[in-house]
Amino acid sequence: MTKKDIAELFRRLAAACPEPETELRYANPFTLLVAVVLSAQATDIGVNKATAALFPITDTPQKMLALGEDRLREAIKTIGLYRTKARNVIKLCTILVEQYGGEVPRDREALESLPGVGRKTANVVLNVAFGEPTIAVDTHIFRVGNRTGLTPGKTPLEVERKLEKRVPAEYKQHAHHWLILHGRYVCKARKPECPTCPIVDLCGYRAKTTVTELVAERASAAVPPTD
Question: pTM for this structure?
Answer without folding.
Answer: 0.86
